Amino acid sequence: MERKRLLLPGFISPELCEELVFVHKSCGVVGYRPHVFSTTLSHLVATNSAALIMPFIALRERVKEAVEEFFDCEFELFVEFTGLISWTTGANIGWHSDDNRDYLRQRHFSAVCYLNTYEQDFHGGLFHFQDGQPATVVPALGTVLIYSADATNIHSVDEVVDGERVTMALWFTRDQAHDEDKKLIDQLMNAMPLLRKEKDDSSDSLMNDLCGENYGIAPQPSQEKEESEGNADKDFTMTPKQFQSAPGDAILRDYFVPAPASTNMYWVTKSETVSSAPRNVGCETAYETITPNSNQEYDVRVKRLATLGFHCDYEPDSMLEKPLKLKYHHQCIAYEFANILHALQVVQFHEWRTCNSSSMCNKNQHEVKNQHEVMDMVFDHGPLKNQHEVMDMVLDIERTMVKPWEEYMRALSKDLLQMLPAWQNTGSIFTR
């Protein structure tokens, strides 16, 4: 029996891998298995982070073309699912095929895009095929693994024993009824009412405002229309009068700032806890070693911030969705974020951008001995020579972190707004 599978080393650039890891670490929620976190395109749209789907688009196309070429089915496939998935300490899965449930029968081909590297970013997590060659796939940054999703490619993944193994998973189908693109386009149009066809007259104004100095998004054509569409639209749009009078930053804030999902989607329960989870103790963040089945629970957003040296006073299910301020070491930061997800995106964005040029950031996470060394890595200073310089940068967080994040989101949003009408017309998502 032929077991068709293909390994493509270096298929994805390191820069794109790092960008996708940033998206996942700033937006991911508790996943479908213990110790697993996931970020889907639909989740990004639902949490007012639609612009962050843009880094996926060209890669989805390239992988789909590679799958069609390898399996000799050009122009026959549709993307059934796209998602970032990370496996943390304790995560594993036994022998299975990717279509092994009735609700998964539409999956015909699979692709796993490895966004970080075995024994550098994590230990364990090797991919094994039950039969045939290659018998074992060692995850390496930029490598893509392609295989059929049926029983000819039964596989498993070893338990991750340390670190975080990050991938982008894609499944492809011949069944157009399961096309992810059409569902996603509908979701985008519902989440971004300014771009619905009946409002084409405002499109030029929208693009001009987005590209202009005010970073703005065009207003609804009429306040009456906004009111008739209910509270969901009000969360994302402004009336003409509000638009004309509001400062640019306020408009940007309303449009770009993420809207967190329900708290339970970020909450790691007792059976899912992993190592190094923080707990808040007054003004300090304490670190404890957490093992599976311990009594510790935590919010993954708070944990990821704490890993980078930032913390906040909070009570579960209460303050995280409201405006909040962070602390760095013992120092309170004056800037007020709209919510915990806003804070996490800004901090993770800065960590990604500074680590791109930092040799310290290539150091394995398991080799970091203490919280202060993590701080050094985040802020691209190597071993701290001038802690006052770092603190000055953190205290001026609006200039050093928030504004660069806003510029990044603005550029992605411009691309999204330019492409969305064409996506809607064709019913598919593609690059220029």
From TrEMBL:
Domain named Fe2OG dioxygenase: residues: 69-174
Chain segments carrying region Disordered: 215-240
One Pfam family, short name: 2OG-FeII_Oxy_3
GO biological process: collagen metabolic process
Gene3D superfamilies: q2cbj1_9rhob like domain (2.60.120.620)
Single annotated GO MF: metal ion binding
Descriptive protein name: Fe2OG dioxygenase domain-containing protein
Taxonomic source organism: Ceratodon purpureus
